[in-house]
Amino acid sequence: MRSIAIDGPAGAGKSSIAKEISKKTGFVYVDTGAMFRALGLYFIKKGIKLEDETAVARLLDDIDIKVVYKDEEQRIMLSGEDVTGHLRSEEAAGAASSLSVYSAVREKLLCVQRDIAKQYNVVMDGRDIGTKVLPDADVKIYLTAGIKERAKRRFFELVQKGEKPDIKKIERDMQDRDYRDMHRKNSPLAKAEDAYEIDTTDMTIKEVVEKILDIAALTG
Ligand code: C5P
């Protein structure tokens, strides 16, 4: 099976770009952030404090998480319930980031992620795909962009959904989340040694996609 790993901080354009690459290559787009978000919302719903690692670990074994691919879309099923529609909120993002420091959580999702990559050709995005989940990925990309540009992108994404976001708060939350993701002990966000770094600040999605497809052809 073939794989393209895309890592980088929040708002660098990973998911938009991975989706386009998926369309052009036929590889399945695997959004690993959605898996952390789904677990985050699950624990909030259960009234578990996300800082309570013991309580989180205790409940983790009972969670039946299945990731399925239908009509080119990823659906996340928790105990048979499709939770995909609830995952894009900032609440889910914060909860995902809090949970993602725990090794038990990461191990559970690591198995799910590697299983998918055994079954399909994938373009998988996240924080530790090139460094940990798929260390032998055929192509590794590390996407970055300036914080102001990343906050602006998230701001417009929320505006399009009819929300009235505060751009300063988005910027602060993103910086906090990036700091946590880069400084945690377990699988921190980092560029793999053999990853190509692309700064997308002044690039269109199309330009980034073309660049990655060029790299994939070079290394393929
Ligand atoms: O990519 P997304 O913004 O949906 O990810 C939400 C959070 O999930 C990230 O901030 C990070 O804490 C966590 N995450 C992770 N490892 C991944 C994907 C996401 O730790 N592979």
Automatic annotation (TrEMBL):
The main place the protein resides is: cytoplasm
Query: What's in the keyword line of the UniProt record?
Result: ATP-binding, Cytoplasm, Kinase, Nucleotide-binding, Transferase
State one Pfam family annotation.
Cytidylate_kin
Query: Which branch of life, at top level?
Result: Bacteria
Query: What is the name listed in the Swiss-Prot or TrEMBL entry for this protein?
Result: Cytidylate kinase
Q: Where does ATP bind?
A: G8, P9, A10, G11, A12, G13, K14, S15, S16
Q: What is the lineage of its organism?
A: Bacteria, Bacillati, Bacillota, Clostridia, Lachnospirales
Keyword Transport in record: no
Q: Which GO terms describe its cellular component?
A: cytosol
Q: Where in the cell is it found?
A: Cytoplasm
Q: Which organism is it from?
A: Johnsonella ignava ATCC 51276
- GO molecular function of the protein, one example? CMP kinase activity
BP terms from Gene Ontology: nucleobase-containing small molecule interconversion; pyrimidine nucleotide metabolic process
Name the protein family: Belongs to the cytidylate kinase family. Type 1 subfamily.
Decide whether keyword Nucleotide-binding is in the record: yes
Q: Where in the numbering of this chain does the Cytidylate kinase domain appear?
A: 4-216
